[in-house]
Amino acid sequence: MKSMQRSPLIILVGPTCAGKSELALFLAMKYQMEIVSADSLQVYRYLDIGTAKPSLKERNNVRHYLIDVVDPDEEFSAVRFMELAREVIDSFIREGTSILVVGGTGLYIKALTKGIFRGPAADEKLRSEIKKDLQKLGKEYLYQRLKEVDPASASRIHPNDTYRIMRALEVYELTQKPMSSFQSSHAFRESPYRSVKIGIERERKELYQRIEKRVEQMIENGLVEEVKGILKRGYDPDLKPLQSLGYKQVIQYLQGEYELDETIRLIKRDTKRYAKRQLTWFKGDPEVEWFTLPQDAERIEERIKNATDNDG
Questions:
Q1: Do 118 and 190 touch, CB atoms closer than 8 A?
Q2: CATH classification number, 8-116+189-215+277-309, choose in 3.30.930.10, 3.30.2350.10, 3.40.1180.10, 3.40.50.300
């Protein structure tokens, strides 16, 4: 039996709409591989169309893991992803099964391959107090407070990312130390796997065309109806997953802030911006080997085949 360190973990990364999922399905079916999703939104039940979740037919053809793990009002973090993903992957390695990790959430990939700062457990009373400050004083107040107690974390967290802002403040209040100091000392040192990271990209013009087409297809497939259904279940529109790309804009449309055409335009615009951020993240990882679709499809397959045949 191969050790964890000797078994190469194949990871497909890249921006949204680059073609990771389609390629992963092809490779998994051809080489009898299991797929572990590294997508921070596909973990949520009911968020199907807007997350481009694999269809039931595709999941029947190839088993996918870490999809539909939690409800929209449950918290899910990179730490929890790391724990669940490693549990699944380690069981595959013991069985000798080949694994393909696929996703565009860079922090999840980093947590899986390098570990992550876990931090103190959540304190519900303190978290409730911080949420009250958010409601009364606004996210600008919380962000300014974070800049004062932990400027390093504030520089890495977007001013609109209230979840991460509140978590950083919670860590500071619980420990009287900035979260950035813990993260710096940890430095993502844990590496239980020897991974082969394959980066998938497209020519910029083609990527943007694919993004526009996918957004239009999501609307045609019933994204607005999907969001209505989620809200009818009683979920708060301010929940973290419902403030994500696509869902946030549709909720604004349902609340009368935009016409549908403007909503579609905003989703397309914001998805392109998100793709650029994903590329920036993954291009900063020197371990990623980059390939361009569609012309490099055979080279990607050859690289993965060599990695699994030759144990890396």
A1: no
A2: 3.40.50.300
pTM: 0.78
Largest pairwise CA distance in the chain: 59
- Which string of DSSP letters, residue by residue, matches 158-227? -TT-HHHHHHHHHHHHHHSS-HHHHHHHHTT----SEEEEEEEE--HHHHHHHHHHHHHHHHHTTHHHHH
Under CATH, what is the fold of the domain 124-186? Histone, subunit A (1.10.20)
- What distance lies between CA 305 and its chain's CA centroid? 26
Instruction: Give bridge partners of residue 196 from the DSSP assignment.
Output: 10
Three-state DSSP class for 310? coil
CA gap 149, 143 in Å, rounded = 10
Q: pLDDT tens digit string along 84-137?
A: 999 999 888 888 888 899 999 999 999 999 887 666 777 788 888 998 999 899
Taking the C-alpha atoms of residue 183 and residue 95, their distance in angstroms, rounded to an integer, is 34
Express each pLDDT in 49-63 by its tens digit: 999 999 999 999 999
